[in-house]
Amino acid sequence: MKIIAGIGYDERHPNFPTEQLGIQLCGEQSLIDEVEFRAGIVKQSTSKALRVVAYLKALKTADHGNRFYTASLATDPIASAETLLNWRDWAILHGWKYDNRSYDSGRLIELADVETHFTEATPSQGERIYRILPFLETVSTSIDEVILHSTIKSWPPLYQTLFSNMETTGIVITEDLNTPEPKAKAHTDLGKLQRALVTGDLSPLVLTNDGTIQLVSTASHQFAAQYSVQAATEKAIIIAQEQQHCVEAVINSSSKTPSGLGSLSSSRAPNQLLQLCLQCAWKTPSPKVVLQYLTLPAGKFRRLRHKLAKHFRDLPGYDVNAWQIVIDNFVSDLLSADADTDETILRQSINDWLPISTCNSDENMPIEFAVSLTDQVSSYWQKRSISTTDNETQEIFMAAFSAAEAAANALRDWPDANISKIQLNRLTSMAHDLGHSRWHQSREVTTFDIVQNPEAALLRETEIDQLIWIDPKMSSSHLPPPLSNSEISGLPLALNDEQQAEVQQLNLIRTYSALLRASQSICLISIEQTPDLLKLLLSELIGIDVWPNLEDLILQNKGITIPLITTTDFALPLVSRWWNIEKAVPAPREKESFSSLSSLALKPHEYTLRYPARIHEGSINSIAVDARLKGNLAHKVVETWINEQPWAGLNIERSTIASWLEERLPQLIRQVALPLAQPGTNVDRLQFQQLMLNAMDALFTALTKAQVTSLFPEIRMGHSGVLGHIEGTMDILCEFANGSFAVIDMKWGGYTRYSEELKAGRPLQLATYAHIAEGNRPEKLLDAGYYILSRAELLCTNNITFPTATAIEPDSPTSFQLTWRQLKKTLQWRIEQLQQGAIELTYGQAEPDDHSTPPENTLPLLEMEEIFHRKQRNSYLKTFKTIDAWRNLTGNFKEQ
Amino acid sequence: MTLFYTQASAGSGKTTSIEKDVTEKLGTGSLKPDEIMAVTFNVDAAAELKGRISQSLLKKGQPLLANGIMSARVGTVHSVFGRLLTDFAFELGLSPEQRVLDDQDKYQVLSEALDKSINLDQIKQLNNLSNRLCIEDWQKDVLSIIELMRSNNLVPERLNDFADNSISTLIAQLPSEDKIITEQTFEASLSSAITKAKQLVKPTVGLGKAIKSCEAILRQPALTWQNWVKVSKLKPTKMGEPAFADAMSLGVSIISIYDGLRVNLNDD
Asked: How many whole angstroms separate alpha carbon A630 and alpha carbon A646?
């Protein structure tokens, strides 16, 4: 048989490559595979992760504390081992250890000591070649000829030795450079360029800009992919060296034909499962990671995880009791659907697949634990890949299985009993790096070809009309590691400067040869701005310094055209104040809350979209240390205190609260505010603790002075009336000796807003809660107020009930009952509008009209909207709030 | 080694001069690509320099040398020195995988370092001080001090000298300490001023505002520097001036003599 070997042939091939009976097409890796097979040598296959860990063990064993790598190895074991393993493999490929002319010098002396301990791992590329050499006689019985499509000098030196040894055994080695003749007509710009490249004449060309050459640039891989796929003709070939999943995404969205280009991307959900599972297991996992895991569309119990994710978005923490309720409901649903399900096994499995905070440390994870989690993921993907019949899915699952298996094996071989977070992340990332052509499979994607390397483009038998190259650059070669000249001098096959430059030159020729195959046009889309010789060469020949921007060319219709869908011109709809639909909008719903009623009264369009239409903003929330998180945590803290320390109406020492916070706050943070437990949040956490100490101290003082006898946190109440059933959760319900009561609603911030509400006589939330509470209790409601936690200040309309409260007297006499009546009448007016299909768009750009004015004895809606717009216009305070405090301070000093 | 120093205004041809010089030396063989190190301020300038040298060599028909320039140490400060750090990571005892931190990462790394290097009591003390001085995020100030020290090549050992110097300069600006004036006396004075002012018949608008401002200050859990200044600059109108006179005068004094501030400064 014959072998055709070419550099760059290991990766994806065109749809119909050279096909000749008895000819094998090989790249650098697959050539060794083939010759090994012919020599009867069993191929040893190990993951990169396992090799690196084996080398790490060897480095550690050889480390007597004074090696050149000692400190780096202690700092970052995997990165150091990976780097040094690359050095070693490169050195072997250049004759180190195996060539009797080689000698150890400098750091290679120490690496030679490591070799004695590095015995179990699979051989490197160079070692495999050395292992083949004695068996070439056997190989020559089945291989007659090796045809080299890349000049022999461009192959790594050890390959050159292999070819020379093959020749001595009778195998014919032929150089057939597969360099095409220029295909474009000589008078075209492309024809001129192709001929200049062939002759090597680098003088600037005289071109006519006939559109056969397009050199453009863009910053976006996605856009480049989109343009390439749209612009490709039936006889086109696309070269995409990196970010192939972008091309796949475009192809999938247009033709729905799976291309397999992004099948092995580590961004795919199945490949994320292992890493997320392990990262969730740390004692204090990152909230972002937990949310990613809970919403990952891969792995077991997806429905349950999505339910937990909903809870997690509101209270980002691991509250075992709260989660257990969700799990119990899920189990009960499953059991009622299938009575044969074994509940114990089901619960155990759920437990296994929710490994949140199961490791007792944030620094080190026991290896056994990491292995068991990794095995669980590996076994899951193995079973899924066996049970899947679809080829594409199977390939994706197999890749996930292979990565998890590689990680598990590497972890089993880990030299220590524990592994740190960084090292574990490095190891799992490395396991997903599947390496050369392990899963190579050429699939027909569409009428045009997509290849990864420019060399592979030359393999297409049929004519190439159009060549589109995304981010063109020179093919990479085996660049030397940063070894010193004396160290390299001991490597007999290492190239000197001139030889290296010559290899680079050959790479350049090999790279631009693809351009010669295009008969009609080429389009090169530059993405990276780093200088590259290929791009410089083309710029020099064509005479342009900067490649024009692709987006601009398309928009300005300058030479670049893409298929466009013509749309009829239409004007944007005029800003309107009302939506009039022919159907009645159902309102109120069976159950309403304060927030929904407030929305109905003030912003009926939002109410309509959110509730009857069920259109939500989306669930992509940021999980950060913000006011929302602090507010939720503060509620939890106060609630827990009241539940744990039954109210006795006595003074509570500040120091008692301080010690309680010291002990309980970290636990509560883990349950509902994980972002505050992350590394580097001590300052924020202690600031929060201080604010809570002030808030709780002042709150309990206020309650004591008011002679509150009982306290009830988070009381949920409901009341039915003309507006249906209204429900609300009172943050704190205070009871007095005579049975009368008061309601306190806690807010983290918003001091100005709530003060203004009280002053204007429109505390809508308090009025609603007062209405609900009065409907539930026969006793009298004495007062209701907002407690601003961050300022430790209770805001009421007077300080009769709560003597320490800040009394904000309303501008005109009012009461909660009056405010509720106004709100109720406003709501009834809105409900009537909705029943007629009239939905008002308030707080927008359209001015109110005659229909916007509510009837008498309702809320002054127009005035409220006007105040809002006025504040929006005067954004000075909003923008310069922080600076303003300083302006006051520094201004005063200047005047002195 | 001979050093050549070129200073010239923008657009006068410094890059062209370097380009010509390097191209010529590479051409004659007196310089090799791996012997060059060129540092520019930004990525575009680095790309331009590299591109211009390579193109000059291409024009002269020396593609091999043009190739060599591609791997030469020409780039921004970050890229060139980043590469040196990677190349010599083992000699420096560093991880061979180095990356440049962006601003957000930098802040996170500093926060984590602070968590490890100062205890919770110290953090509480710094939080307390920054609240009093109305500093929103003292970690950012620490970061900018570190960055200034690094860019001025100052060693950490000198930081204590700077801190001492800074504290003593600030304290020297303050009037002498008066043990009688404390935060409690200031608060008592404010309360008294409010009581007196509230007894005045038909208070002016300005007086009403002054009363409200002082009440708001007293409601706060801790007084800030800004509060003291605010009191010193109250405008209670002529009617309220007698009532607020003592509090206003203390407002200025208390900044400088407040013992808590001195304790904080001296402790750090």
From this structure: 24
What single-letter DSSP state applies at residue A548?
P
pLDDT in tens, A502-529: 888 888 888 999 999 999 999 999 998 7
Q: Are strands A741-747 and A724-736 parallel, antiparallel or unpaired?
A: antiparallel
DSSP state for residue A614 in the 8-state scheme = -
Task: Tell me what the pLDDT averaged over chain A comes to.
Answer: 89
pLDDT score of A115 more than 80 = yes
Q: How far is CA A608 from the centre of its chain?
A: 33
Are the C-beta atoms of A401 and A382 separated by less than 8 Å? yes
Residue A195: burial class (beta carbons within 10 Å; 0-12, 13-18, 19+): middle
**Beta strand A578-580 with A838-840: parallel, antiparallel or unpaired?**
antiparallel
The dihedrals phi and psi of A148, each to the nearest 5 degrees, come to -95, 120
For residues A674 and A317, the answer to whether their CB atoms sit within 8 Å is yes
Average pLDDT estimate for A251-266: 70
- Contact list in A for residue B91 (CB cut-off 8 A) is 68
Residues contacting A493, CB < 8 A, separation 6+: A93, A94, A95, A99, A157, A158, A161
DSSP state letters, A282-337: SSS--HHHHHHHHH-SSSS-HHHHHHHHHHHHHS-S--HHHHHHHHHHHHHHHHHH
The pLDDT value recorded for residue A874 is 60
Q: Locate the chain B residue with the closest alpha carbon to A893.
A: B229
Global ipTM: 0.84
Please answer yes or no on whether B97 and A79 come within 8 Å at the CB atom. yes
Instruction: Give the mean model confidence (pLDDT) for residues A35-40.
Output: 93
d(CA B72, CA B18): 15
DSSP codes joined into one string, A621-681: ----SSHHHHHHHHHHHHHHHHHHS---SS---HHHHHHHHHHHHHHHHHHH-GGGGSTT-
Beta bridge partners of A717: A728
Q: Which CA distances in Å does A536 have to A203, A472, B54, B166?
A: 13, 11, 8, 54
Q: Give mean pLDDT, residues B229-241.
A: 88
Distance CA A666, CA B218 (A): 31
Q: How far away is chain A from the Cα of B147, in angstroms, using its nearest Cα?
A: 19
CB pairs under 8 A between A and B: 139
Residues 6+ apart with CB under 8 A from B184: none
What does the pLDDT read at residue B67? 79
The CA angle B136-B138-B143, to the nearest 5 degrees, is 130
- Distance from C-alpha of A212 to C-alpha of A519, rounded to nearest angstrom: 9
Q: What angle do CA B115, B116, B118 make, to 5 degrees?
A: 70
CA-to-CA distance for A400 and A406, rounded, in angstroms? 10
User: CB–CB of A694 and B221 under 8 A?
Assistant: yes
> Cβ–Cβ of B70/A540 closer than 8 Å?
no
Dihedral of alpha carbons A527, A395, A52, A421, sign: positive
Tell which A residues from 199 to 238 touch B, by Cβ distance under 8 Å.
202
Residue-wise pLDDT for A691-718, tens only, equals 999 999 999 999 999 999 999 999 999 9
Confirm if B214 and B247 have CB atoms less than 8 A apart. yes
- pTM comes to 0.85
B158, two tokens: 């000198």
Residues A892, B232: C-beta atoms closer than 8 Å: yes
- Cα A737–chain centre separation: 56
Which is nearest to A715 in space by CA: A772, A665, A657, A754? A772
Q: A6-10, A874-878, B159-163, B195-199: which range is least confident on average?
A: A874-878
Chain segment A141-194, per-residue pLDDT in tens: 999 999 999 899 999 999 999 999 999 999 999 998 877 889 999 999 999 999
Task: Please give the single-letter amino acid code of residue A885.
Answer: A
Is the separation of the CB atoms in A709 and A815 below 8 Å? no
